[in-house]
Model the fold of this input.
Amino acid sequence: MADDDPIVCSRCFTDTGLRFDAERIGIDVPGACPNCGAEGFKKLPQAGLGALAHRYFVWGSMWRTRYGAAPLVEFNEHQKTSIELQPWLEQDVRLIERLLKVGFFHYGPRLWMLGEIEPLKALQRSRTRQSIVDRILGEYPERSFSSDESFYRVRVNPSAPGAPSHYDSPPPEHSGRGRLDVKGQPILYGSPDLEICIHECRVTAEDDVFVATLSPTKTLRLLDLSVLLKEGEGVTEFESLDITVHMLFLAGRHSYRLTRTIAEAARIAGFDGLIYPSYFSLLRLGKMPFQTVYGISQRCIEQLHEHEQAKTIPNLALFGRPVATGSVAVKCIDRLVISRVAYEFHFGPTGA
Ligand SMILES: [Zn+2]
Done:
């Protein structure tokens, strides 16, 4: 039997989630399923079944912590199944065990995946915070943003949709609520990725939505926090500034206190703004967070740097009110008609 010969089809599974995902991962191959004998369902070879098991049980059991996330379930050829199974998964797990010769077990994550990282912990303590902020400003690269580049800013229900000034940052009295702006210091948020802008604005079908295309009028100096920071040999995940910053921008509202401190330090240091990873990067690209190879972060593996970098979509934050001061110009404004909203989803076990 060749490696790419099908061994199961979507109908072999009883759980709805596994059936759906098998139908999506599987391929059209004529003939009867070698396992159940049915015809007309998508079929999976060995590797496809492995991908299905990973997507459902590993990615599907991903548990978010304050900073970081880790799967609760793993599987491999060395262990027997020791997780408790809901009755509707019993038969499917037995099938996967038999065909892949694997067992499913509770994953004991390496603690860095849950945010046990020295620079991240130091950033959260007020006594040591400044030293990490200084390192971030010193170690991340500066990037020029020139007048032949552009970015988007989306507004929902603006009072004067055609007025360029309505695409500037909000007036100072309204600042202090976002990921990077502190009270009295407005920030113009945008992105070169239009879909990310729409996501960030949490647009609904009832809204009147407009998008402005903006460009700098002179070269702006930005601190680029969206890059994968190459750290020296021997720097582990537990000491990594790169993973600290990466986790910080994938965290929710509780992280804003820290991200605002970094932004304010960059403003005081004379930067015109920041490039930072979008919170929605992974959702937009449909990627699993914090992927590892044998417990080592893929971000720490040189051969995977490019692959990892591609998982970050940059966002833009410009200090002050750059449209009003003339350092950024509105090139055009379009109405945005939301014609279809699609959700991509996959499944996972419900747990005990
Ligand atoms: Zn089948």
